[in-house]
Amino acid sequence: MTTAFAAAVHNISDFDRLTARALLEAMASAAVVLDGAGTLVAHNARAEDLLQTHVLAVVGKVIEGPFRMMADRARRMGDGTTSVTFDQALGNTWYHVSVYPIWAQTGGPMLQIIAATDITQQKHAEFEIRESEARLEEATRIAQLGTYKLHWDTEAIQWSPHMFVIHGLSPGSFIHTRETYNALVHPEDRELFDQYRRDQFEGKALRGAEYRIVRKGAVRWLRLDGRVLFDAEGEPYASFGTCQDITEAKQREQELKSLLRRNAILYEALDASPIGVAVVTTDGPRPEVFYVNAEFERLTGFKTSTLAKNTIEALQPKEEAGEWQKVAQALNTSSAGAFELLCARLNGTSFLAQLEIAPVRDHPGRDAMVFVLNLRDITIDRQRAEALLQSQKMEALGQLSGGVAHEINNLLQPMLALSELGIDIADSDPEKVRKYFEVIASSGRKARDIVRQVLTFARRDAPQLAPYAISFLVADALRLLQSGLPPGISLEQDIAVGDAEAVVNPTQVSQVVLNLVKNAADAMDGEGAVRVALTVVDLDVAAAAALTLTPGRWIRLRVADEGCGMDAYTLSRVFEPFFTTKLAGRGTGLGLSVVYSIVTGWGGTLKLESEVDHGTTAVVYIPTAPSS
Ligand code: ADP
Ligand code: MG
User: Fold this and answer.
1) pLDDT in tens, 101-113
2) What would the 3-class secondary structure string for 384-396 be?
3) What ligand has the least distance to the C-alpha of 582?
4) Does the domain at residues 273-377 carry the CATH identifier 3.40.50.300?
5) For the domain 126-250, what is the CATH superfamily, name and number?
6) Which atom of ligand 1 lies nearest, measured to the CA of 589?
7) Distance from C-alpha of 413 to C-alpha of 101, rounded to nearest angstrom
């Protein structure tokens, strides 16, 4: 508009103020025409505000005020022969100012048009945009974000300065093409990145891509997040996004992952351990268990999931305090220790355990942060040790019986001597002979008793073992002893195992049954039931190991009573020959040792389960014949 006007003015041969005025009025700006001296030649109505004085008063005079300022600025900016434009602020108002030189064709004085358009609103909008752009730039700088823009039609890519920093490139030296960029990408991630780029061009990849580049020989992780830009018609024309160096975050993530993996492996390894492992803290008022492995859980019933409720005191059986006090002391003094003690399960039962405590300190000399507990069930070990001890005792007894033979020899001496003497005086002194016979008989009885008792476990007589239908042997034995039982004692039998055969000696079977049933009856004080049961059992490897037997088929004989039971002390000694708790004349203390000796002689074993005041069950495992 103003350019057209300038041309028009230029072509007016005889410059006419009114024509000029009309043309000026047609302009959208506030406009004035000045001559070289700054005298107002013409103006339009919009200019009046800026002229500040009434128009008529200033036409033909040199003006002051805003237009004068603009004219001066234009003169400073150019040589006065070309047009200049600038933005000028006057108070709160912004003007876009254009200043054009005009020459009358006649070569009259040089004039200039000054046109000022109020652009305050645009200016503010521009400021706002600039400010938000500046803020965005600052934000991306702080976040170490690069930004890029991808033009779909040309595949041209624009990068923000930080993109070059991220990629370790200087802006001038990098010509961005698909190939040059691919060369930066880590070989293993090129395909992934190419796919991401293809997706972007198809408008698909709105999620981020994480990939590696090689920056000056070092691998860096980058993350791209892009979005598609649409034109006014809703057609996608470009995509734009941010790029971030996430190497450090990635490293931390990977460290965390490998840490977690290591942890998982560690936990699995601990769960594979045949030893119970627990970790205990002593921060709280009482030691608390915060980790248990699978074996510890199996042994005690403690579960990692319910550990909050598990203090270590739950492992201590009510009746067992002594050793556990030492455990508490070790925990209190941050010291290591090894203990053999009864350990309670959560279900109320208990087992003989070996417990080792190891303090874990973060600094030598400091109190332990946590304790590691190692727990093993040593019931079986103990049983094995006891069984070994037992067989040694029996061996000793075998030797002892040699000594007993010597005793009997001593008894035989007077018997032989007196009978020879007796033969000589049989006719002359019958009275003396009678006395001799009394001595001989009493010596014989003594010898018989000793032989009876000792032979069984010394096993010098090596009884013949053969397969017998065990049900019949046990039934025979029970029939024989039934009449000898006190009237209040009943005998319950469950001994039908068909014709299952056991490899035994029939006399010994009745000895075993007799001794066990007699003990059961004795324990019940004249009133109660003795239950005798036979079963065929198949022992698997674990069950057999627990009994120190070989896996396979066994005959099990159980004799159970509801009598007085035995305490731990009695139980530990019952297999000793001559150990008895019964009154003199009622017990010899040989019953169980004989039974033990017989049963182990068969290749079987004898176990006692007993609880004080609740009764005792004797369990005998008898070898079967191969066919049964
Ligand atoms: P005795 O019966 O002659 O005393 P044993 O060797 O048969 O000798 O038994 C040894 C001890 O074991 C008994 O004195 C008794 O204290 C204990 N005992 C054996 N069997 C039982 C039982 N069924 N109930 C309780 N105590 C028993
Ligand atoms: Mg007995």
Assistant:
1) 876 555 555 788 8
2) HHHHHHHHHHHHH
3) 1
4) no
5) PAS domain (3.30.450.20)
6) 8
7) 165
> Could you say which ligand is closest to the alpha carbon of residue 578?
1
Architecture of domain 463-628: 2-Layer Sandwich (3.30)
CA neighbor of 55 nearest in space, from 34, 36, 38, 40: 40
Q: 590 CA distance to ligand 2 centroid (A)?
A: 7
Domains 126-250 and 273-377 share a fold: yes
**In the numeric block, which tokens belong to residue 314?**
């739950």
Q: Does the pLDDT value for residue 5 go beyond 60? A: no
Atom 11 (ligand 1) nearest CA:
580
**Domain definitions of the chain by residue range:** 2-118, 126-250, 273-377, 378-462, 463-628
For ligand 2, the distance from its centroid to the CA atom of residue 594, given in whole angstroms, is 9
Count, residues in the chain: 628
Helix (H, G, I), strand (E, B) or coil at 305: helix
pTM confidence score: 0.37
CATH superfamily assigned to domain 2-118: PAS domain (3.30.450.20)
Reported as a single tens digit per residue, the pLDDT across 327-381 is: 888 888 888 888 888 898 888 888 989 999 999 888 887 888 889 999 999 888 7
Which stretch of 209-223, 246-260, 376-390 has the lowest confidence by average pLDDT?
376-390
The closest residue, in CA terms, to atom 21 on ligand 1 is: 519
Residues near ligand 1 (Cβ within 6 A) = 515, 519-520, 523, 561, 563-566, 570, 574, 579-582, 587-589, 591-593, 616
Predicted local distance difference test score (pLDDT) of residue 109: 59
Q: Tell me the percentage of the chain whose pLDDT exceeds 70.
A: 86
Question: What is the C-alpha separation between 307 and 292, in angstroms, rounded?
Answer: 9
Residue 7, pLDDT score = 45
